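Deliverable D2.4 — example input (structure tokens):
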């Protein structure tokens, strides 16, 4: 009799205390501008569920002011930790100082923030400059360094745009016959990528066609491909298409011959972010300031197989 009563009491206590102890993490995400971004958000949500983390997710719709509001509200709610995937690099110091004062650790994922590094625990990201270098090397190799390039940049002020451009430009600077002849932001979205490419094509002179489109992400490249097709030009052949991300739709486009190359970017940033938070909240403050991931170049050769793998995930 005694034992019977005892067990449910223990079970109840355990249940109650585990609920009370669930870690609460606020996550301020850039938005849902690209397929890569959506996969990243999903990955964070799935990982939080698997770890029984109470995740407060906030979509900033590509606006830093929304992110700052979200972070302030996470602080007011007294979350255990905050993850920020910042839209742009600048303007973060005040709100990060507020988090620090409230003793809430902040982990930066993906793009960077320009602040003293005592204002966050660590940053988990890929090396965007290296991505620019890799894709430019592929393009220079493919064209023997002869190429008039139309560049569709990502969001102005975002690390992914700044560093990808820097890496790409560093490589093509070594080739006198390679040149960026048009450049404009497409804000990382498919619709804008299409719009920008349409305007490039209108302004293009017939005797100086583009040899390639360099888009700072797959989503804009996919929009540009549509614009090129609608102009009666063959993407992937008449104009080479290169970008970064490695989203399933882009693998499909490569398999169909419409796109040429991309650098894969892992969207699985939730697990390493939660690992760091666990460590930090567990008392281990010995965490490197940058945890980086890398990705490979993919081309048409393996695109069909890679598409299969990715779309069955
Ligand atoms: O390439 C793009 C997204 O910041 C690295 O943002 C990220 C970029 C990614 O919208 O698709």
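Example output (designed residues):
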């Amino acid at each position: 009799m005694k034992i019977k009563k005892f067990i449910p009491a223990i079970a109840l206590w355990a249940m109650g205390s585990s609920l009370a102890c669930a870690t609460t993490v606020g996550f301020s995400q850039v938005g849902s501008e690209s397929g890569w971004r959506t996969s990243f958000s999903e990955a964070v949500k799935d990982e939080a569920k698997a770890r029984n983390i109470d995740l407060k997710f906030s979509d900033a719709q590509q606006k830093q002011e929304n992110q700052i509001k979200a972070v302030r509200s996470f602080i007011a709610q007294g979350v255990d930790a905050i993850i920020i995937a910042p839209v742009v690099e600048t303007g973060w110091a005040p709100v990060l100082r507020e988090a620090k004062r409230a003793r809430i650790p902040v982990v930066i994922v993906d793009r960077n923030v320009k602040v003293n590094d005592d204002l966050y625990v660590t940053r988990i990201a890929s090396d965007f400059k290296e991505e620019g270098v890799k894709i430019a090397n592929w393009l220079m190799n493919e064209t023997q360094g002869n190429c008039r390039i139309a560049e569709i940049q990502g969001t102005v002020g975002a690390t992914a745009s700044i560093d990808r451009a820097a890496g790409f430009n560093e490589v093509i600077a070594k080739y006198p016959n390679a040149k960026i002849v048009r450049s404009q932001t497409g804000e990382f979205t498919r619709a804008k990528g299409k719009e920008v490419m349409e305007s490039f094509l209108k302004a293009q002179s017939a005797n100086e066609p583009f040899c390639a489109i360099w888009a700072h992400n797959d989503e804009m490249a996919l929009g540009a491909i549509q614009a090129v097709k609608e102009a009666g030009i063959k993407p992937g052949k008449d104009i080479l298409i290169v970008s970064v991300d490695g989203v399933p739709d882009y693998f499909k486009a490569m398999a169909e011959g419409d796109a040429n190359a991309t650098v894969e970017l892992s969207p699985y940033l939730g697990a390493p972010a939660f690992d760091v938070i666990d460590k930090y909240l567990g008392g281990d403050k010995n965490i490197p300031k940058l945890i980086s991931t890398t990705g490979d170049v993919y081309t048409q050769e393996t695109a069909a197989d890679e598409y299969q793998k990715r779309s069955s995930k």
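Residues 2-21 form the longest helix (20 residues).
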